[in-house]
Amino acid sequence: MNKADQIKALAVSLEEKENQIRQLLAQIGNHEVQIAEYRQIVKELSDKLKLYEQKHGLVFKSSAK
Fold first, then answer.
1. pTM of the model
2. How far apart are CA 59 and CA 53, in angstroms?
3. Contact 53, 59 (CB under 8 A)
4. What is the pLDDT of residues 10-65, one digit of tens each?
5. CB 29 within 8 A of CB 36
């Protein structure tokens, strides 16, 4: 393999790695959005549970003695 072919192969490899990095960054962004949504759901459910407990008493009790 001559130098020109090696350079072309390296350029292709570099482009593939850049594409992989872009895909991974997009996945990270999607995961961050999902995490934010789940945090919001947990907060809303926790708030509802607190209101329920204030009205009706404890729902979950510790089993530790």
1. 0.68
2. 6
3. yes
4. 999 999 999 999 999 999 999 999 999 999 999 999 999 999 999 988 877 777 75
5. no
